[in-house]
Amino acid sequence: MRSLGIIGQIVAIVIVFFGLKYQMPIGQCLAVIAVAIAFNATLFATYPNIHMLNEREAATHLAFDICQLTSMLALTGGIQNPFALLYLAPVVISASNLSLGATLALAMLAFGSISVISFLHWPLPWDPQDPLLLPPLYVAGNWISLTLGIGFCLIYAWRTADEARRMHAALAATQSALAREQRLSDLGALAAAAAHELGTPLGTIAIVSRELERDMGASSKWIDDVRLLRSQAERCRQILSQLSQQDTAEDTIAKRLPLAALIDEIAEPHRGFGIDINVDIRTPGQLTVMRTPEVVHGLGNLIENAVDFAQTKVDIDAQWDHETIVLTIIDDGTGFDQEILVRLGEPYVTSRSGIDAPRPANANSTTHAEGHAGMGLGFFIAKTLLERIGSQMSFGNHPGSGARIRLNIPRKSLENPSNSRV
Fold first, then answer.
1. What is the pTM assigned to this prediction?
2. Phi, psi at 95, each rounded to 5°
3. Most distant CA pair in the chain, distance
4. What is the DSSP letter of 357?
5. Per-residue pLDDT tens listing for the chain (422 residues)
């Protein structure tokens, strides 16, 4: 664009000086154009064909264009020159692409330049035999029109660009939400297929483990492991049975109970693996909530993950006010890896590799995370389910401890969930 501007300036000088024979400081004008050519040549030699400018670089380039235009106009009549209209170009470009601060700085540079060349300039190139003398009132009108034009175009371009940015952000958020819902829908179909296909092998495991338990006798050293195997197989069958059932308005999953009892109920299946799960209700009094599927499955996934990576304990703190219920889950493990932390909540993001997780010496021999290779769907499912009821989730590492997960759940979504699904 600057190259086109340079060509336009050269053509204008050739027509005015050599074609119309008007008097003008041709040497000084060519020197100013030469500076612009040298600047552009340096940029072509320095940067590749495709180079993304940062805001500081872009503002510097536009400021150079304003200063170069000011120098040319100062040599050719100031704001009496009709090409003074070109001051609008860099300001409008900045308003459409740069921040408000950079745009205002460039606008102030343009206003100052217009004011300076209104008084300090060479005569407008004209026929020396019939010089053109414009009235001061007309020159003042030019200054006012340029100033108002720059201001109006700045505001209009900025508002238009800002609306376009807002629409783009809204479209991106909508596409992200639709993609997340599509992934969750795909997982729902996968869960239904898994519930159907895994029922038979889990039933076989339960039968074989029951027969082994009966044949071993109570004195066998493997009896505890066999009993644990059978109980976990039964739990898997119960989970798959719940996944294959449709929720109804009369289902017991929607019963009302105290928040502390709900958290204990969700955490109960994850106890008994050498990890203490402590529930601390920090707000005095009792809060009665609905047992919603989003909280049961979402919070259950988060607690299970904390138990898998904890060393000895998992702390669950709950507090609330008139609008929000805040749940914090903290384990004493090694915390989230920084590379994974920024991507938590996306599907198929996991740090589980199937290698035995480190455990303290006093933990049970059979642990919750032993040999557990994750698919990276737990956090994605939990985040999606909880966001459907308006929750906000943040991840981090607790100083001096392990991972920390904070949930901000709208209180109305648990007290009256039928009116708060989003």
1. 0.48
2. -65, -30
3. 124
4. P
5. 899 999 999 999 999 999 988 989 999 999 999 999 999 999 988 887 778 889 999 999 999 999 999 999 999 999 999 999 999 999 999 998 898 899 999 999 999 999 999 999 999 898 878 878 889 898 899 999 999 999 999 998 888 888 888 888 777 777 776 676 676 666 666 666 666 677 778 878 888 888 888 888 778 888 888 888 888 888 887 777 765 554 444 444 457 889 999 999 898 888 877 889 999 998 888 888 888 878 888 888 899 888 988 889 999 999 999 889 999 999 988 888 877 777 777 766 666 554 444 444 333 433 444 444 455 667 777 887 888 888 888 888 887 778 899 999 998 888 876 555 55
Fold observed for domain 249-419 = Heat Shock Protein 90 (3.30.565)
Look at the block and give the residue holding tokens 């800002």. 162
| CB < 8 Å & 24+ apart, contacts of 281-287 | 281/318, 281/319, 282/317, 282/318, 282/319, 283/318, 283/319, 283/320, 283/321, 286/258, 286/259, 286/260, 287/258, 287/259, 287/320, 287/325, 287/411
For the chain, the domains span 2-134, 249-419
CA distance 106 to 40: 20
> Residue 212 belongs to what H/E stretch?
helix 136-216
For residues 310 and 360, give the distance between their C-alpha atoms in angstroms, rounded to a whole number.
10
Residues whose CB falls within 8 Å of the CB of residue 392, separated by 6 or more in sequence, listed in order:
407, 408
